[in-house]
Design a protein that fits this description.
globular; binds 2-acetamido-2-deoxy-beta-D-glucopyranose; 3 helices; 6-stranded mixed β-sheet; signal; binds copper (II) ion; 5-stranded mixed β-sheet; Coagulation Factor XIII, Chain A, domain 1; mainly beta
Length: 304
Amino acid sequence: MPRPSLLLAALSAATTALAHSHLAHILINGALYHGFDPRPDKSNPPHRVAWTTSNLDDGYVPSSSYTHPDIACHISGTSVPAHAPVRPGDIIHVQWNGWPRDHQAPLLSYLAPCVGTSDGCASVDKAALAWTKIDDSAPVVVDQRAGAPGTWSSHVMIARNNSWGVRVPRGTPGGAYVLRHEAIALHFAKDVGSAQSYPLCMNLWVDADEGGRTGGQRVPGLDLEGGVVATELYGAEDPGILIDVFKVLTKTYAVPGPTLARGAEPVPHSEQIMSMSRTEGVPVRVVGTGTVPWVESTARVFSG
Ligand SMILES: *[C@@H]1O[C@H](CO)[C@@H](O)[C@H](O)[C@H]1NC(C)=O
Ligand SMILES: [Cu+2]
């Protein structure tokens, strides 16, 4: 019979494994598009818009691997043919498969255009994707007291039924994009290499003119010029990555990664809402400069 301390250790290890997460699905104007569940006993629909990954324990990419290509779209991230159609200005509700309260995390979102392919993002080279930050919504909501890690964006996400709204900027040019939504769990981040990134990649088809939404409405364009490749997003010792969240923050939390792009339109905490699914979304495949519906999914109506 194991000693109680070993039993406790085993139990907490099991809890930690369960506590990891993945993309359950995204909701756009009430239409549901499928995420990806990497656990070995799960099956995933072929028309999912989320990239396939091999983090079989629902785990993360540690900050010690920030120069490895896995930081782009999670471990062995591989694109899929389906894209969720979306218009500039729409809010994408990214719904996680739950999130543990003790994984204090900022939530960051990036867009990368898929260029030079005839199938949108399906065959894109992930190492070449240039990521532009479109959301870094105020990661810490309240000041911290010593020993208390404060309230983070992840807590707001949990309270909104594990979902986070990401607005596609109104000035986003039309075309295929990968949306990279990421939580960086900081509960062990006081040690170098121990922050935990959970990058979720999903394919989008932005239905707009070159200059974003037009039709008489003048909006600033989204500045995609400063995009950076994933392996250059973060360093293991960046101030927002190597941090003891249980100490009082003496400075404003330094959000990791590049600055927010001009034209980005993050949804503030106060406007984060829950979204209910009403229908099963019909993803599209990209063919040249246009799209065709992913027909296998059209017959099904979501009953959740
Ligand atoms: C929370 O999300 C789940 C999964 O999508 C859904 O079934 C449930 O209805 C949602 N609850 C609320 C209150 O929105
Ligand atoms: Cu975890």
